Structures are given as C-alpha cells and as structure tokens.
Amino acid sequence: MTMAELGAASERAPGWAIAFHCQQAVEKSLKILLVLQGVEPPYSHDLIYLHERCGPFATEFPLGRDELKALHPFAVAERYPI
Question: What is the pLDDT of residues 38-56, one digit of tens each?
C-alpha cells in the first residue's frame, strides 16, 4: 500500500500530506525514466518539465498534463527552485 493509499484510508490524514506524497512519487518516477534513458535528472520539481524531458519514454505515463499541473503546488521548494 502506498503512502497516498494509507492517507486516503485514514479520516485523520491531512489532504496536503497525501498530495505531497503523490507529487514525490510522480517526480521520482519521471526521474527514474530519465535515468533509464541515460539522462542525468535535472534539479527540478516541475512535473510537466520532467515529463517533457522523458520524451517517448513517457508516452504511456498514467498521468496527463492537468494531473501533473494539479500536483505542482505540493513540490518541495526548499532544496532548489521549482
């Protein structure tokens, strides 16, 4: 079970925390696709930018542009700029 599923199953879990874990999972998944292509992942939390960088490897990625954009506000901004 993922953190998002655990949070969604709990009445006490804050929605922002669930969204944060979803954003992190998507960001890491896109960066893994880049690594599999032999590309060094950029220092970015921008899911749309990362998705575009994945090129043909991301054609079957389960989330579309609107969903990626909806997760954008939940990225970690402290480590480096979005």
Answer: 999 998 999 999 999 998 8
Structure tokens at 25: 């999972």
Domain residue limits, the chain: 15-74
Rounded CA separation 49/42 (Å): 10
Cβ contact 54:30 at 8 Å: yes
Tell me the residue length of the chain. Answer: 82
Please tell me the distance from the alpha carbon of residue 22 to that of residue 38, in angstroms, as a whole number: 25
Instruction: Say which amino acid occupies 20.
Output: F
CB 7 within 8 A of CB 21: yes
- pTM of this prediction exceeds 0.85: no
For the purposes of burial, counting CB atoms within 10 Å of the CB of 17, is it exposed (0-12), middle (13-18) or buried (19 or more)?
middle
